[in-house]
Design a protein that fits this description.
Elements: E1 2-7, H1 16-25, E2 31-34, H2 40-48, E3 52-59, H3 61-68, E4 76-81, H4 87-91, H5 98-106, E5 109-118, E6 121-123, E7 126-129, H6 131-141, H7 153-166, E8 175-177, E9 181-183, E10 186-189, E11 195-197, E12 200-202, E13 214-219, H8 224-236, E14 244-250, E15 252-265, E16 268-289
Parallel strand pairs: 1-2, 1-3, 3-4, 4-16
Antiparallel strand pairs: 5-6, 5-16, 7-10, 7-15, 8-9, 8-15, 10-13, 11-12, 13-14, 15-16
Helix pairs in contact: 1-5, 2-3, 6-7
Length: about 290
């Protein structure tokens, strides 16, 4: 019995020096397990969850997502920021510095947090069909550096501007939300903030919480003027109004697309979909948070 540290060495802010400093901040005797390919963090978490006192994860949001999809037992999980954005540890109050986060997690308390599921796959902070998924895809097209690192927040901002420009600021209805109505795209939040742009929190749904069901934001068709207003409201936190559906504490929502549309989960492109089922999974895992 002992704790393990799952490390993604290709994450944006992970180096051997960072790993060593994190180990000093964690309890003595933590075993380091390094990933080498996509999906390995899921396999490692599933393999060690029965015997580990705790599983710490040093990587980015994609690595956290893999671990969450690997665990089935109530093993304590410590999420340490090693990616370019690292939304989950920041949303849990662990901050952006991996060493400081390691100290906080190691000396912290366990908190049961809810997760979301999309077509059966878990997610921790957000998922979306359409706009933000297309943005994630554009970032992936840029490729990664030779060391495997993904483009940073500035690239996301540039691609967001490019996406709006390419559409001429117009987003037409493209999907149907069961029992709700038509929409251009769907953003689903499991916490607040939805994501970050550098230090700036993007607060799509201010009432979203790990302690509640899912929050859903879905705009109807918008033109150039409406798009600017919409983007501004998504940064501050959307409020329901004509042409903008905002739902809180949702257990399940079903989306049917007019055509195959991109789906993203915790910043990872899951390909095109025509039907998506979002579900809330209350108190799904135990996260280590500041005491």
């Amino acid at each position: 019995m002992g704790a393990v540290l799952i490390v993604n060495p290709r994450a944006s802010k992970v180096s051997e020096e960072v790993v060593e400093r994190v180990l000093v901040a964690l309890p003595a005797g933590v075993e380091v397990l390094r990933t080498g390919a996509a999906g390995e963090a899921t396999a490692l978490a599933r393999e060690r969850e029965a015997s580990a006192e705790a599983i710490y994860v040093l990587g980015g949001d994609g690595t956290y997502n893999e671990v969450l999809n690997g665990v089935t037992r109530p093993v304590p999980l410590g999420f340490l920021p090693g990616g370019g954005t690292s939304v989950l540890p920041r949303a849990l109050g662990l901050g952006r510095d991996p060493v400081a986060a390691a100290r906080l997690a190691a000396g912290g308390v366990e908190r049961a947090i809810g997760l979301g599921r999309v077509n059966g796959r878990r997610f921790s902070f957000n998922a979306g069909v359409g706009f933000d998924a297309e943005l994630v895809r554009r970032i992936d097209v840029r490729g990664r550096a030779t060391d495997g690192r993904r483009p940073g927040d500035a690239a996301f901002v540039r691609e967001a501007i490019g996406l709006v420009t390419a559409s001429r600021g117009r987003f037409a209805e493209a999907l149907e939300i069961e029992d709700v109505g038509r929409a251009a795209f769907v953003l689903v939040a499991n916490c607040d903030p939805y994501t970050y742009a550098g230090r700036l929190p993007v607060r799509v749904a201010r009432q979203a919480s790990f302690d509640a069901g899912l929050a859903v934001v879905a705009p109807g068709p918008v033109g150039p003027v409406g798009t600017l207003r919409l983007l501004a409201s998504l940064v501050r936190g959307a409020a329901p109004r004509r042409g903008l559906t905002v739902l809180h504490d949702v257990d399940r929502i079903v989306v049917s697309c007019d055509r195959p549309m991109p789906l993203q989960v915790d910043g990872e492109d899951l390909g095109d979909v025509e039907r998506v089922v979002f579900e809330s999974e209350p108190r799904a895992v135990r996260a280590l948070v500041p005491g």
